[in-house]
Amino acid sequence: MSDQARKITAFLYEIGLLKRFKRTGWSTVGVPLPESVADHSYRVSVMASVLAAMEGADCQRAGFLALWHDSQETRTTDIPHLTKRYVTAVGNAAVTADQVAPLPPAVAEMIKSAVAEFEGGETLEARCARDADKLECLFQAREYQDQGHANVQDWIASSLAGLTTASAKQIAEEALAQNTLDWLLAAKRQPR
């Protein structure tokens, strides 16, 4: 197991880069310290589970698919949408295949199948995970907006346009109506 442990350990160190790599698109609107790819992926996973519960899908599977959806960015970093117009990028499945090539077959297949299902968008769980990716961007844009960053409307509009599930559309509508700290005021009013 020592060779397998060495390769798995190296992969886990690589995945740790997602904690340091920032979501770069936000810098164009003046966000000085945007969230990391790992920050984004965490909330996407939570949102995917919630959306799956609302849609009657497998919550654990949807959250799992979302967990892996940006894992390729250890090798590509977070490429802003504008930049993608000028570079030729390898697809996420190909990047994932390279990342997991040294890993034991069971581990490699688990990751490759999650990425393929997310990218394919065919299952309800994948649609919930993909909607969660867009919904998280909308939430983040609203939070940055509340912090004084005025030029986030394009992120909000593109996120809304990409939603497919009824549950994600409902949550997005409420996210736009609600102040991002309404939950805090409600929590303070709750009796102990």
Please describe what this structure looks like:
This protein has 192 residues and is mostly helical. The protein is 69% helix and 0% strand. The longest helix is centred in the last third of the chain and has 23 residues, at 124-146. It is globular, with a radius of gyration of 18 Å. The mean pLDDT is 96.
Low-confidence stretches: none
How much is the average pLDDT?
Answer: 96
Report Rg: 18 Å
Alpha-beta classification? mainly alpha
Helices and strands, in order, run as HHHHHHHHHHHH
Give a topology summary.
Elements: H1 2-15, H2 17-20, H3 37-55, H4 59-68, H5 73-76, H6 81-84, H7 92-100, H8 105-120, H9 124-146, H10 153-162, H11 166-177, H12 182-189
Helix pairs in contact: 3-4, 3-9, 4-8, 4-9, 7-8, 8-9, 9-10, 9-11
Short description:
The protein is mainly alpha-helical. The chain is 69% helix and 0% strand.
Key features of this structure:
192 residues, single chain, mainly alpha, globular, 12 helices
